[in-house]
Each structure stands twice: as structure tokens, then as C-alpha cells.
Write a structure and sequence with these properties.
single chain, alpha/beta, Arc Repressor Mutant, subunit A, Two-component system, response regulator of the LuxR family, CheY-like_superfamily, Sig_transdc_resp-reg_receiver, transcription regulation, phosphoprotein
């Protein structure tokens, strides 16, 4: 059973999410109203996924995400909760290692699907939305570590470039005339070589290294 911690300072948000998740067989093992409580709850309950609000008292969701994702074995996946889909804090959280983000008005079906997707090891990546987010805020966070892409093969660079443009595995396979299994292998190798958690971080690195150039925001 998937184990989840919900961190949000609004009781109604936590209650609503807990009802949706438990009704679908997902175990909510902890709740938190501050970032500090979220860090403690994760250490106590060892969940698979954390739903993390950005704006919370005492310790915001960004710093809480950084503290949770320390690189230790068995660390959970963090999904950022936000009211606005182009919040610069969300970009910073993705850079810190979060696996994606959800708007707080997400439908119950999408919430459950997102939790299971992240639990299975994929990134919660709505490609065009995440790409738009990265395009708007890339190069503004000086804390981002720029990675050397020299370890990637020409084919892997091509896959990363297209991935950063928002293409799914199926679309990548069609564009490159490869099987989806081969595309998945390329993506896995890219993540391993660059020491990245998931596709979201790969998109960020593609922009931060200049492999893909951000466009001007609308």
C-alpha cells in the first residue's frame, strides 16, 4: 500500500486530500501544518510520497523539501502543492529534487493517479506545463548546480533535448524511430549519468546547461 504524508497549513485541504486518498486505498500515515512538522512526520513514518505545500509557517515547503531529500536511501518522492501553476517557488522546489507539482484544485482522479505515478518511480510531469515553468524561471536560481553533459552520447543528448521540449516516451520513440523500450533505456542512462532523480530534473538541467534555450514568457 502506498504511504503518504500531507503537509499543508489549511485543514480543509488536508482533510479533503486525506478523504480522497483513503477512499482509493492509499494510506495517509501523517499530516503536517508546517515545514518542520513535515520533516518530522517523514522521519517518523517513512512515507513513499509527500504532498508538500510551498507556503507554510516556521519552515516553508522549499526548505522542508531540501531537508527531506538528503540523498539517503529510501527517501520519499515529494510532490509540490501550489495554488498557481507558475509559482517561482515551484521551480526552486523542483530544482531541490521534488518530483513534480499539483494545483490544489486537482480532480480526485488526477490526485490518485499522480500519487501512484510518482510512487512507481516516474516524475509527475505534465510536459507542457513543466516546460513552461522551467522556461519562465530558468537561469534565475543561482543555487542550481550546472552539470557537465560531456558524459552523454550524441543520441542521449538528442533524447534529453527532446525530453526537455515536453515529449513523452511514445512521442520520443516516434520522432527518433525507436521502440519505447529503447527510449526508456536512454532516459534511464541519462538520469544515471547526470545523477538525477527523474525527468523533471532532467528538464531543468537541459535548460540550466543551455542545451535548450528558454523562450520569453508570455
Amino acid at each position: 500500500m502506498t504511504r503518504v504524508v500531507i503537509a499543508d497549513d489549511q485543514l480543509l485541504v488536508r482533510t479533503g486530500f486525506r478523504m480522497i486518498l483513503t477512499a482509493d486505498g492509499i494510506d495517509v500515515v501523517g499530516e503536517a501544518t508546517t515545514g518542520a512538522e513535515a520533516v518530522d512526520a517523514v522521519r517518523r513514518t517513512r512515507p513513499d510520497v509527500v504532498l508538500m505545500d510551498i507556503r507554510m509557517p516556521e519552515l516553508d515547503g522549499l526548505e522542508a523539501t531540501r531537508r527531506i531529500l538528503t540523498g539517503a536511501p529510501g527517501e520519499p518522492r515529494v510532490v509540490i502543492l501550489t495554488t498557481f501553476d507558475l509559482d517561482h517557488y515551484v521551480y526552486a522546489a523542483l530544482s531541490a529534487g521534488a518530483s513534480g507539482f499539483l494545483l490544489k484544485d486537482v480532480t480526485p482522479e488526477h490526485l490518485v493517479s499522480a500519487i501512484r505515478m510518482v510512487r512507481a518511480g516516474d516524475a509527475l510531469l505534465a510536459p507542457t506545463i513543466t516546460r513552461r515553468l522551467v522556461e519562465r524561471f530558468a537561469h534565475r536560481d543561482t543555487g542550481v548546480v550546472h552539470r557537465d553533459l560531456a558524459s552523454l552520447t550524441p543520441r542521449e543528448l538528442e533524447v534529453l533535448r527532446l525530453l526537455a521540449q515536453g515529449l513523452s516516451n511514445a512521442e520520443l520513440a516516434a520522432r527518433l524511430h525507436l521502440s519505447e523500450a529503447t527510449v526508456k533505456t536512454h532516459v534511464a542512462r541519462i538520469l544515471a549519468k547526470l545523477d538525477l532523480r527523474d525527468r523533471v530534473q532532467a528538464v531543468i538541467v537541459a535548460y540550466e546547461t543551455g542545451l535548450v534555450s528558454p523562450t520569453a514568457p508570455a
